[in-house]
Write a structure and sequence with these properties.
- The protein is an alpha/beta fold and about 425 residues long.
- It contains three helices and 27 strands.
- The chain is elongated and about 125 Å long.
- The mean pLDDT is about 85.
- The strands form three sheets. It has a 19-stranded parallel beta sheet that branches. The chain has a five-stranded antiparallel beta sheet with strand order 1-2-3-4-27, covered by helices on one side.
- The longest helix is centred in the first third of the chain and has 71 residues.
Length: about 425
């Protein structure tokens, strides 16, 4: 029998190798466990970071959206002409950048959701805040605030108002400037002065009984241009010159946009559903000529331009009438964006109509002489009544001044908040 002999030193080496191999296995197992734990912790940390970042973006997006609401209300308070709106290229309104934070998109609409927003009215401002791709959309109701005093006038003269003779006014009169009344004239409503420099001419109260009110702040009225812009866009009257309802009148208004009538001529303006919009560049009535309005089918708006021009707006003929029996719900409004005075002379009548001739300081007035009567409301830069003129306010119009500012109302909502 053969015997294998192993030297004693070799046995020691063999045992040492076995121990070294076991230790290596243990180290590898330990490293594997540590690697697994480290990887898991890293994954957890990354996941937690991504969740935290997503939550941060989610919170930031609503703050950015609310910043958009604040921005828009401030812009409206500076001027309603700043109102942002939507179009096919910007369905959420224009985009504004907040450096190192995000962007917001914002627009204004009426309470019923329609656009464009009607200035000086309550509305809704909608804002989308976008931060790193996270979007949150909020909406808030807002309302006009301030202005003080009456907002319903038979007569408003931005800079001046003057009446002499035996003129009578049934309703309120107001100004940011000065008034001068003759002793035989009368006002059944209040005489309202607005702003620190607004008062009777020379500070002298004319003889008679006047219910006088003083307000600390001026009232800011929208210009004809701004009202046209809110309806027809930035090129308003230029656009309206090419897109109007002049063909609805009988007879149709001539291609030179001037209504010049003599003798026994007569023109009738007709309304339509949603409102008919006529465009003129001058009106002259002579002899016994007149024009009337048939608002049975809808409201009627007559716009006179171009902006800053000086055409004749002369009603020296017969009567310009709007019958209350036609349809008192459909208003008739006459807007002039020119620097011309609207002149009414003789015994002509204006029945149930708003005259708005105010497109900048000292631009656009109203002069009435003789025995004409006006039923409705007259909002102009300056007016001058002489003779036996009668002005009577008729309800149903919205002759509002601009508010001092626009403020959050009572509704705040968010559209589908999720992340």
């Amino acid at each position: 029998m053969n015997r294998i002999c192993v030297p004693a030193g070799a046995i020691a080496l063999c045992n040492s190798s076995r121990r070294s191999g076991g230790a290596l296995i243990s180290v590898l197992a330990f490293v594997t466990v540590i690697s697994f734990i480290t990887t898991s912790m890293m994954r957890l940390t990354v996941s937690h970071y991504q969740l935290a970042k997503r939550q941060c973006d989610f919170e930031s997006a609503v703050y950015v959206a609310e910043a958009g609401i604040d921005y828009e209300l401030r812009a409206l308070s500076n001027s309603p002409l700043n109102a942002d709106t939507t179009n096919s290229g910007n369905p959420y309104g224009p985009t504004y950048n907040l450096p190192a934070v995000g962007v917001f998109q914002v627009y204004v609409s009426n309470r019923d959701g329609s656009i464009p927003w009607t200035e000086a009215q309550s509305g809704i401002v909608t804002s989308r805040g976008i931060v790193n791709g996270t979007i949150r959309t909020v909406s808030a109701y807002f309302k006009p605030v301030g202005g003080g005093g009456s907002s319903v006038y038979a007569l408003w003269g931005e800079t001046t108002g003057n009446m002499v003779g035996n003129c009578t006014v049934t309703g309120n009169v107001g100004t940011n400037g000065t008034f001068s009344f003759g002793s035989n004239c009368s006002v059944s409503g209040i005489v309202e002065f607005n702003g620190p420099l607004s008062n009777w001419v020379g500070g002298v109260v004319p003889s008679g009984i006047w219910n006088t009110v003083y307000n600390a702040n001026k009232k800011i009225w929208p210009t004809v241009d701004s009202m046209a812009t809110s309806k027809f866009g930035s090129t308003a009257l230029v656009w309206l010159k090419a897109h109007n309802d002049n063909g609805l009148s009988v007879p149709p208004i001539s291609s030179d946009y001037v209504l010049h009538m003599t003798g026994n001529d007569h023109t009738t303006f007709y309304g339509k559903p949603g409102g008919a919009n006529y465009y003129l560049e001058g009106i002259t009535l002579e002899g016994t000529s007149d024009f009337s309005f048939d608002n049975t089918a809808g409201p009627i708006n007559v716009w006179v331009g171009p902006t800053g021009s000086n055409p004749n707006i002369d009603w020296r003929g017969g009567s310009a009438t709007i019958s209350m029996s036609t349809n008192p719900i459909n208003a008739v409004r006459f807007y002039s964006a020119t620097v011309s005075d609207i002149v009414q002379v003789g015994n002509s009548q204006i029945i149930d109509c708003e005259i708005y001739n105010m497109n900048g300081w000292h631009q656009g007035g109203f002069i009435a002489k003789g025995t004409p009567n006006i039923y409705g409301t007259v909002i102009v830069n300056n007016w001058d009544l002489r003779g036996n003129v009668g002005v009577t306010y008729v309800s149903g119009y919205q002759p509002y001044p601009q508010p001092l500012y626009y403020s959050f109302d009572n509704v705040y909502t968010e559209d589908n908040p999720s992340y």
